[in-house]
Design brief:
Elements (H helix, E strand, L loop, with lengths): L5 H4 L12 E6 L3 H16 L3 E2 L8 E6 L4 H20 L4 E6 H5 L1 H7 L5 E3 L7 H11 L5 E3 L23 E5 L1 E2 L10 H5 L3 E2 L2 H14 L3 E5 L17 H9 L6 E5 L8 H9 L6 E3 L7 H7 L5 H14 L4 E8 L6 H14 L3 E6 L17 H24 L5 E9 L6 E6 L4 E5 L8 E9 L3 E6 L1
Parallel strand pairs: 1-2, 1-3, 3-4, 4-5, 5-6, 7-10, 10-11, 12-13, 13-14, 17-19
Antiparallel strand pairs: 8-9, 15-16, 15-18, 16-17, 18-19
Helix pairs in contact: 13-14
The chain binds S-adenosyl-L-homocysteine, iron/sulfur cluster (SF4) and FE3-S4 cluster (F3S).
S-adenosyl-L-homocysteine binds next to strand 13.
């Protein structure tokens, strides 16, 4: 799904005409949201709608929003505003706002945007077809807001899943919804509700169907994915055993999962990464801060030392394993010395990659209500510095791969260089080679010839 800037909406010359029976979905946020958008697309396709590549053509426009930081919220509000004039030009358009902002800011969305036809929270995507149908019939008279009650319901509000009919090489499969960790900076527990695990049988059935269609790589999704099965339903298995069961499905060659929570990384899981052939040798392990005091204030229940111990244990058990992480800088009250501790932890642990964020104040969260917020310029300065620290490490780690052979699952033609294809290695490094497109969808060995910040160039072995 492409990112559309509000500027793209200003009437260009030769703007396409609206086409009845079409839809366009704009997605912000995490893979869970990307996956929800796919589910929404499948529901719309069941109703007979087909996708179009621009918002001007679409009859149904859905905005699947994210609340994790202020920026994606601002973008969604700005696009909603722009769509008001588009709706004047195309009065048959149905506009739905879905996702995490819909769940927590429905009233504000309604108030600021009377042209929105319906607001649908994150609870039950199966309500979408009804909302769309009703909006098509009655939109001039009635607006609907659906925020399915989700608190406390452990099993009943696990959404039904819809497997498409077309083949996908790589697929995302949610195995757990919501989050029970309540990190003090984070909005997700409010937008996604309490932690619920999907039944094991249902997950396996879905992956079996995907494998039958040709899927080779599965990424399991959950906010604290390794606590899967904590609220055990009868017949559910713990996370490590789930990985084994998935690996037994013929056709599934690779399994990833995101994001595990550091404290809940069991020894059984570490050994499964080593022993289960399909599980990739890459762990995304969010540290968030490298300072114990800040971690405590974030309500992350581990220390820098215990985090390092887990990383060391994984490294000692799983040869060649790589790590990525998430880090927030400028948490309220973070001192220069505490920020420096984070930089030091990054240097000590040597992650292969880090997703770094300037802390974004989320109203209604404990940290959002604090008065000792760090000024924006200071957060951005820390962010730029941390990115430099990490980039040096990434470059340095990657140089050592030159001359090695990696196993790559090719997934696409390289967008930049004609005649080249790309894919990810088992260590989750992006690798690009000269090669024909018939190799896409297959795994091959590549010898690394050049290292970059983004990954490797290489030659087919
Ligand atoms: N459940 C996952 C993270 C989901 S949100 C986990 O705990 O690892 C993805 C990332 O966004 C988080 O890891 C965190 O680094 C970042 N994030 C969450 N809330 C944020 C905020 N208020 N400001 C900046 N970054 C935030
Ligand atoms: Fe947010 Fe923390 Fe839950 Fe991750 S574990 S979703 S950061 S509350
Ligand atoms: Fe994902 Fe953003 Fe919601 S990160 S869970 S879409 S708040």
């Amino acid at each position: 799904m492409t990112t559309l800037s509000p500027r793209d909406l200003l009437a260009p010359k030769g703007r396409p005409e609206p086409k009845p029976g079409t839809y366009y979905i704009q997605t912000w946020g995490c893979q869970m949201n990307e996956e929800d958008s796919e589910q929404m697309a499948l529901y719309l396709e069941d109703l007979g709608f087909s996708p179009v590549s621009s918002v001007w053509e679409a009859q149904i426009v859905l905005l699947n929003t994210c609340s994790v930081r202020k920026k994606p919220e601002d973008k969604a509000f700005s696009l909603m505003g722009e769509l008001r004039s588009l709706k004047r030009y195309n009065p048959d358009m149905v506009l739905g706002v879905c996702g995490c902002m819909a769940q927590t800011r429905a009233n504000e969305i309604r108030h600021r945007n009377p042209h929105v036809d319906f607001v649908l929270g994150t609870g039950d995507l199966a309500l979408l077809p009804g909302l769309v149908t009703e909006s098509l019939q009655t939109r001039r008279f009635r607006k609907r807001t659906e925020l399915p009650e989700r608190k406390g319901k452990v099993v009943t509000d696990i959404p039904r899943r819809h497997v498409g009919r077309t083949a996908k090489l790589k697929a995302f499969v949610p195995i757990q919804y919501g989050c029970d960790k309540f990190c003090t900076y984070c909005i997700v527990p409010s937008t996604r509700g309490r932690e619920r695990s999907r039944p094991t049988v249902e997950i396996l059935e879905e992956i079996q169907k995907l494998a039958d269609l040709g899927t080779k790589e599965i990424t399991l999704l959950g906010q604290t994915v390794n606590s899967y099965g904590k609220n055990l339903l009868e017949g559910n298995v713990p996370f490590a055993q789930l990985l084994w069961k998935i690996s037994e499905i013929p056709g599934i060659e690779r399994i990833r999962y995101t994001s595990p929570y550091p404290r809940d990384f069991s020894q059984e899981l570490v050994e499964t990464i080593r022993d289960c052939p399909a599980v990739m040798e890459n762990v995304h392990l969010p540290i968030q801060s490298g300072d114990d005091e800040v971690l405590r204030e974030m309500r992350r229940v581990y220390t820098v030392e215990s985090f390092k111990e887990i990383a060391t244990r994984i490294r000692e058990t799983v040869p060649g394993v790589t790590f990525s992480t998430d880090i927030i800088v400028g948490f309220p009250g973070e001192t220069e010395a505490q920020f420096e501790s984070t930089c030091q932890a990054v240097r000590d642990i040597r992650f292969d990659a880090a997703f770094t964020f300037a802390y974004s104040t989320r109203p209604g969260t404990p940290a959002g209500d604090r008065e000792d917020q760090i000024p924006r310029e200071e957060k951005l300065r820390r962010l730029a510095h941390l990115i430099e620290v990490q980039n040096d490490i990434t470059r340095d780690i990657n140089v050592a791969y030159v001359g090695q052979e990696l196993e790559v699952l090719f997934d696409s033609a390289s967008p930049k260089w004609p005649g080249t294809i790309q894919g990810y290695s088992r260590e989750f490094k992006l690798v690009q080679v000269q090669g024909s497109e018939d190799r896409i969808g297959r795994i091959a060995k590549v010898k690394v010839t050049e290292s970059h910040l983004w990954g490797f160039s290489g030659t087919l072995v």
